[in-house]
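Researcher: Following up on the earlier apo prediction. This time include the ligand. It's coenzyme A, with the SMILES given after the sequence.
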Amino acid sequence: MLEVNFDPFPELTTERLVLRKMKDADAEQFFKLRSNTEVMKHIGKKPMTLMNEAMDFIKMINDLLENNSGITWAMALKENPEKLIGTIGLWRLIKEHYRAEIGYMLLPEFWRKGLTNEAVLKVLDYGINELKLHSIEGRITPLNIASAKILENTGFIREAYFKEDFFFNGKFEDTAIYSLLSRNFRGEVL
Ligand SMILES: CC(C)(COP(=O)(O)OP(=O)(O)OC[C@H]1O[C@@H](n2cnc3c(N)ncnc32)[C@H](O)[C@@H]1OP(=O)(O)O)[C@@H](O)C(=O)NCCC(=O)NCCS
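Model: Understood. Below is the ligand-bound prediction.
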């Protein structure tokens, strides 16, 4: 069984980003992210409408962290490390199977600059080389072209496709499931 200890918190850096622990002071920026309809379009959850929801979510993230059952990093630019611009995490750790699911989101003003690719490569490196995961999963709606691109860029293979398995907003949507095996991770955009 995989043994996990997120204490001390593994802060990570990339060329342009700091990936750091989420804190209560991030609530305002986190709310901006999670209440944005463009950001939430393919997430399968309703956009937040109340600041309290952002505070509760941060608490939930930090509870998961304390229990060593999942980790989320705040994404921030190196030149402004206090200001959260996105989040990235390894959710749903399945310790028996050395597997986890990756998730990420970024404020639209920062889209299409390669920042998420950069963050994903670092988190995959951490997940595979430090946590010792054997595989990492990515689940997306196939309409999420940007997310599919990121997974493909970083070495994930689409292994499954479920038709209309997800009911949201009165509609049944498809899910594409991607996976990356640790031995196939190259550590660079392919
Ligand atoms: C998915 C998301 C995080 C991508 O962030 P980003 O920082 O803009 O992505 P990058 O700039 O690193 O781009 C990665 C790749 O996706 C492509 N891409 C990014 N946005 C795209 C878009 N809207 N349409 C098509 N391709 C897109 C880029 O061209 C790049 O591919 P390339 O390297 O071959 O040129 C961002 O669009 C987002 O926050 N979306 C809403 C939340 C979300 O859907 N999260 C994923 C849930 S599974």
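Model: The chain has a mean pLDDT of 97.
Researcher: Noted. I'll compare it with the apo version next.
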